[in-house]
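Dear colleagues,

I hope this message finds you well. In preparation for our joint manuscript, I am sending the Porin (Bordetella genomosp. 5) sequence together with its predicted structure, so that both groups work from identical material. I would be grateful if you could confirm receipt.
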Amino acid sequence: MKKTLLGAAVIAAMAGTAQAETSVTLYGLIDTGIGYQRIKGADTHESKFGMANGVSSGSRWGLRGAEDLGDGLSAVFVLESGFNSANGTSGQSGRLFGRQATVGLKSSSWGQLDFGRQTNIASKYFGAIDPFGASYGQANIGNAFSAANTVRYDNMVMLQTPSFSGFQAGVGYSFNVADTTAAQTGFATADNTRGITTGVRYVNGPLNVALAYDQLNLSNRVATSDDPTPKSWIVGGSYDFEVVKLALAYGQTRDGWFGGQSINAFGSGSPAASSFGSNVAADGFKATSTLVGLTLPLGGASNVMVSWQRADAKNDRLNGDDATMNVYSLGYTYNLSKRTNLYALGSYATNFAFQDDVKSTVAIVGVRHRF
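The corresponding structure tokens are as follows:
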């Protein structure tokens, strides 16, 4: 209740008015820890020990609200800002509301239509399947399935249906996926890199299965003669047997890689890769990805998460190497309350970012608090 009143006060101060039929909620979380990472390759051997930010969940604060328009229709909005809890700086390249900035309409009969910046369908659907919830850095599903790496598109129109007997679908179109990238801004539609995201899922009790597809149509201003069209499809699911929850996923990415976390981690690249925003385009590139994961509940307050990810590059057109990446991860969470939990993570990757003989070892402990 306090959060709702405070959020309403903030909006009233900004807008000068507050409508009685509109609910506004202030929310957020802070995630901070201490971590160690070692990166070893043929020409690289570096390690780091220090503060870790946003490992189990990105630190954030936000405002969300709804206005009842009658007949099952509501006006809705979300403004969500990411920040680094270790030093107080803004996340998402300094954007005020870099995690999400949307306004739209929500109907009990046809679903929700949003306009603005938010995550793609693959990230929404497969975050619920991944044992690590599409979080925990190197452990998250996005390392092998880049389109599920919490990819956000600017300038997007997205429609999501309500759940019909467990089935739900979504589709989104971005007129310019990355406003902040100089090579992608121009007046003409084709001067901007456009994105398509779509998917369908079925959720019924312990069963959750999903299929997602993403595609980027490059800006005419991106310097490449091959005109690649990065695309990705993922299929997978999870089943909760109560004593253990099993997760499986399989997919393929072509002509590039989405969401830059797992690409060019050491600044390496090749003439075959044309970089734009947090994505990399490379005509003819192909990678097949697999995930197997388990979640084991221990009592009512803790969970153990285990996963193995594999991404098999079929050629070296992305960054000059075609090594098969494997990521092995083990995590643990312990709930101190409904809002506060402790966590620990250990993860080991070979041929990280498809680079031959590059190994990455991560160990982190931290605390997360929701408000």
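For the figure legend, we might mention the following. The mean pLDDT is 88. The first helix runs from residue 2 to 15.

With kind regards,
E.M.
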